[in-house]
From TrEMBL:
Superkingdom, taxonomy of origin: Bacteria
Organism encoding this protein: Actinoplanes subglobosus
Protein's UniProt name: Bifunctional diguanylate cyclase/phosphodiesterase
Domain EAL: 1-251
Amino acid sequence: TRIAAGLRQALADGTLFMHYQPVVDAATGRATGVEALMRWRRDGELVPPGVFIPVAEQTGLIGAIGTRALWLACGQAAAWHREHGIYLTVNVSTHQLRDPGFTATVLEILADTGLPAAALVLEITESVLIDAADTPVLGELRANGIRIAIDDFGTGYSSLAYLHALPVDILKIDQSFIRRHQDPPRPQDVSLTRAILELARSQDLLAVAEGVETPGQAELLRDLGCPLAQGYHFGRPADADTIDTLMREHT
Ligand code: G
Ligand code: G
Ligand code: G
Ligand code: MN
Ligand code: NA
């Protein structure tokens, strides 16, 4: 397809790049990490990742593109980690986890960029985690000190049955659970978020609330003791220079 051909070209011409969104301490609002989000500018226009990531997955190009994304993000985050103690979180697809060489690739990129393994988190959706449960890759990554996050938690189907068995460290609560909090919040919505936070705590998982857009939602999450948060209220995904300026001002 046109997108696949364009992506092959993009790997060569450098039009794939990363945006970064702050992940903050929910109590203070200060950035503790950044999530890397891939961007592609084709003929001067941004193609949404929702359009090109699925094509990259279907064509297998996600292997090379994902390696490029990791390389770019680790290189950038190494400086932020040195200067501000920031960690990096990167989204990973099923194709990457199924590659027996993936751990070696990640370790090579960490060695080359100087980002410590302990400062890297790989985000994997629930369904992909369950699908990849039989591969040695997740165990290898964790044995090397890289942390694993369940992304979009609550949108998969077997979450509770599998949660205790999944080799993960961080639970990212899907935006849909946060977005439902109105002002004032409804008791049943609050109970649901509280229950997810309690679930995370009971499994020794660090919770991140995604999609926090309003001051009321931020305050509620803080009151519920949610450790980390992310969303437009704290900062939109932005280019590295913008995030760099923000961190110099706030840390
Ligand atoms: O960035 P939003 O910014 O629109 O991201 C849309 C979707 O694309 C999200 O589900 C996100 O996880 C996914 N995505 C963004 N960057 C990457 C990436 O580098 N690798 C993979 N596999 N998915 C990504
Ligand atoms: O070698 P391979 O085609 O898998 O590389 C994928 C992408 O990783 C390259 O297109 C390049 O952008 C990026 N990259 C650049 N330098 C390095 C490096 O030293 N190590 C790794 N692992 N990737 C790199
Ligand atoms: O699937 P994943 O969680 O990796 O994707 C994160 C997506 O959510 C990205 O597309 C990112 O741009 C988007 N995002 C981040 N914060 C917010 C927010 O506060 N509101 C909305 N609607 N989207 C957000
Ligand atoms: Mn994510
Ligand atoms: Na998510």
